[in-house]
Amino acid sequence: MSVWRAAAALIREGAPGALATVARVRGSTPVPAGTKMLVGATGRLIGSIGGGCVEADVIGAALDAQARRVPALFTHHLNADLAGDLGLSCGGTVDIFVEPLLSDDSYVRVLDAAADAASGLVRTALDWTSGPVKTFQAVAAAGISGVAATLTRDGRFMEERLTQAPRVLVFGAGHVGAAIARAAAAAGFRVVVIDDRAEYADASRFGDGIGVVTGDVEAALLRYPLTAADAVVIATRGHRNDALILERVAASPASYVGLLGSKRKKAVITRALATAGVPAASLKRVRVPVGLAIGAVTPEEIAVSVVAELIAWRRG
Fold it and tell me: How far apart are CA 9 and CA 283, in angstroms?
């Protein structure tokens, strides 16, 4: 569950809480601007803004904001000695905005909009003398996925530009494919799993937020046309299925295409596809074996190696 959605749910439950957002960073810091953490009555619930003394101070400020029902902006300096002791990046400064969760209809609507939006701009006033001021505006996506935050020049607002996380289509819902799907979802990707076997393409095998399609590659691509923001991981039960899928996605707009298997498998499949007319340049960009070379053996280890490579692709 996203921090936005969890915050809205907390308000609806009538439970106390506060949102902490890294509003601005200068120098070397543990986390980028836009990083969020949800704090409940007893401490951190979801997210992290860097750990160590920073997080401890933010939790304290969040508990105070809950009690006083007013937001606060404070600055935390990470000097070299302190950062070294805590294992954090040194020399940076972070401005952190802490806002109490208030049962205000317009405020909750913005949280819901941010949770559901593919992209948008959230503006939050730092002064809540007349009540919470938070707005959402739909805008075109731009930049890396996630949240980019900043303080306006006049110091009156925090602005957060939201962009949707990349989508990962995992073909194959066997042990390895399922492990990759779960790990990718945990890492913040939007995940869709595709398998033509109904017993494997069963939504109950996967957590909330993971899409599941029962069908072949044609059905999947009809429902989810590939874009440059997409990644494809092929991990089906055999060479023939892999080749059929790769034939359809190798030349697609997807920026990342990976195939589970050995270098020999790549040679066999790419030779056949080249003979079938798939452009050599399209086949050359396919990552085989998919994932980082960490000696992974088990499905879970393979999932870690694949998602690590996906993160590297996502972060450029």
Answer: 46
